Amino acid sequence: MSQPDGGTTMHRTDRPLGLPRWVAAVLPLVLLALIVGGFFVATPFASLDTGGEPLPDVTVTHTTLTDDETVVLHVTNNGPDPVTISQVLVDDAYWNFDVRGAGGDATLAPLESARVVLPYHWNPGWDLEFALVLSDGATVHHTLVAPSESPGLTTDLLVTMVVIGLFVGVIPVALGMLWFPFLQSMSDRWLHAILAFSAGILVFLAIDAGFEAFELGEQVPGAFEGPALVALGILGSLLAVQSVSAWRQGRADGGDARAQSGLWIAYLVALGIGLHNLAEGLAIGSSFALGRVSLGAFLVIGFMLHNVTEGPAVVAPLAHGERPPLTHFLGLGVLAGAPVILGGWLGSLAYSPTLGALFLAVGVGAILQVVWELRGMIGRRGRAGTALNLVTFLTGLIVMYVTDLFVAL
Amino acid sequence: MPSMTYSRARELTERLEERLTDSIASDLTATRRAVLGGLGLAGGAALAGVGRADGHDAAAAGHDDDSHGNFGAVGEYRDLDFDPHDYLTRFNTGRGESDNVPQDVYEEDGRTVREFTLTAVDTTVTIAPGIEFSAWAYNGQVPGPTLRAVEGDLIRVHFENLGRHAHTIHPHLRNLDPAMDGVPTNGPGVLDTGESYTYEWIAQPAGCHFYHCHSLPLKEHIHRGLYGAIIVDPDPERVAEHPADYCDFHPSQITDDLRADLVAEAETRNHESDANDDVNEMVMVMNGFDTNFDGDNEVYAVNTRAFAYGVGETDGEGNWQAGETKRPIQVDRTRRQRVYLINTIEFDPINSFHTHSQFFDYYDHGTTLYPTHPTVDTIMQCQAQRGIIELDYSTHDPGLYMFHAHQSEFAELGWMSFFEVI
């Protein structure tokens, strides 16, 4: 069957070019492999190689202070070539050190990580400057601001994180949810305004966490492409939650009553906030892990105030219909608040900027999807862009900004 | 004893090198150079046994006195091509003192000529254990070879540039011929790759001087390692004739006793005089290296290698163990000690020299035979300043005596040394 452009149409069951289907599927890959292999063998760019040496690329991801006489620098080699840590300077003085975890020598293969252990009697609160001097004289600098001892892994720490998590996550959200009866008594118009207010809160959280994720992304070893990782986390979680939501929408259109209720959206909001709170937990836990206990304490108070406003955001979607069983409220509260505990554990035990940036990014994506969902919810029963809705949205942003100051201060 | 352990270290390193290169000679992907480079680290670690393993043993044995850690470079020097201990006392007078410096001494028109061949090359020098610096160097060493002549001699230098950049040699001497000044504008100007020129300088005035490349950019050509010492010994006969040239006194103040003192001092300084044999003379060139191009030095040293004259391992209570390549300068306390000190540092305006538990006489630029600063324990030198330091340890107990730059930063970045008085 010939076509005007000279191509042919065929039925889906036909064998393309007369080949079995699996051959047709594999053939392009085989050809690609041949071409790539050919490049390796033929090295067509050899003439362009000026013999310039790639610059060493080494990152100090973070430090741990196990006791007051030891500093441990966690180091990753991002570059394509091995690097050797020949000497270490502490505050502009050569100091003795030991490289551990690099196979017994001071040479790090590409993408290899190691710990540089320094016996150094540091002073709490006094900044320290480190420079790793590589074999070619290149230096890798790292500043440790206001050092204090890292707590290390203890049952005490785990229990402390649970208590902190309850106070930072679960209790404020539960307190916020106590506005539920009040929300129920509202007209559609005011309820939508409250939902817009929630959206404002969430958008601010997304912005805040987004910046933080990119900031943390800069500490991610170069080879892991921090900013790209953050972008992937945001888009990935946004699309993942959206696909769940779209599946739910399909069910609702098909007449499934449960999928139509506001409870579904409430759970989505709780999930988004929960992911965000996981990142909060990471921030608290890692500040303790990095020995910055005073910062951790500030974060606890700030997040506590901050999270009270998340309660009404969670329950607002429920205000419209019948009150669901109380167990759902419990479930929503735990989903939104308890991840702080998990984040605290992760942050204090397995802190790394890479993990931190990724979690923050995932939280941002989830929040953005929830905002999308809230807009749809308002739009189904009214108009999203009313003056009242816009003002309460803005109020949500401002309230968050103000409570955020408690964290910053 | 230290020289024994030193050669032992060299043998061990060479043996390890051979074994490793032989064992992987069949591996075509690894070049011999790469293997040697990698081995440098392994060998350094093996040799560091003296320094570092002892530290661990001490800790294991229950001494926790080093739990605060010690400052200093970790590991030993593996590249033994240049030996800062040997450099201290290696003077080239035309009699073939250094294998890598072709030289001769002869008479010409009634004047002693000391002839040297200096070659500028691009090379790498080890400035701290495991750290290589891409240097430009006269005869492959930093500092360049020490040239020594007697006042009034002709210093004839055949200079050939085998480096990638244009270089010169500029002498810090009283030079009467502008063509011999070694600057881009005069005489031959800068010498490009492959070019050569013969400089001729009269050795004057007596003192502690130096030479360096004067190509532009100046900072880089000096900082990369193109400098070395020129020592001009006073001529006792000339001192007897012109004593006022060698001290602060007016000719009318010169008594016979003073004249005799000056001549005697000149004889201790003159390498051709027997009196010179009683003095232990050392050349110390204070230098620094900016390894990361930030306009600040990462390594400070005398004679290029950080902590080269340091103590390998010490418990802070007087018990110490010299490293194989990092060890104190041993001095015989019955002999007078003389240091020809030159500051070639870049990126810092001044450098300094400080002795512990000791005061010394200082002769600024070494052009006088009476000290310009008697009885001091710290002197400072700006860039290119130099002088002679005379030390007497005859009344000191044997042991370790520190000396270092009294910029604490420089000291902790490598310019930290010890005399071991025996």
From TrEMBL, chain A:
Chain segments annotated as transmembrane: 21-46, 157-183, 190-207, 227-247, 259-276, 282-305, 326-347, 353-372, 384-403
UniProt keyword annotation of Transmembrane helix present: yes
Keywords, in A-Z order:
Membrane, Transmembrane, Transmembrane helix
Q: What is this protein called?
A: Metal transporter
From TrEMBL, chain B:
Q: Does the keyword Coiled coil apply?
A: no
- What GO molecular function terms would the record report? copper ion binding; nitrite reductase (NO-forming) activity
EC id: 1.7.2.1
* Binding-site residues for Cu cation, renumbered to this chain: H172, H212, C213, H221
- Cofactor(s) annotated in UniProt: Cu(+); Cu(2+)
| Residue span, Plastocyanin-like domain | 123-235, 317-420
Catalytic function, reaction form: nitric oxide + Fe(III)-[cytochrome c] + H2O = Fe(II)-[cytochrome c] + nitrite + 2 H(+)
> What PROSITE patterns does this protein map onto?
TAT (PS51318)
Q: Which Pfam families match?
A: Cu-oxidase_2, Cu-oxidase_3
InterPro entries in the record: Cu-oxidase-like_N, Cu-oxidase_C, Cu-oxidase_fam, Cupredoxin, NO2-reductase_Cu, TAT_signal
Q: Keywords on this record?
A: Copper, Metal-binding, Oxidoreductase, Repeat
Its quaternary structure?
A: Homotrimer.
What name does this protein carry?
A: Copper-containing nitrite reductase
What is the species listed in this Swiss-Prot or TrEMBL entry?
A: Haloplanus aerogenes
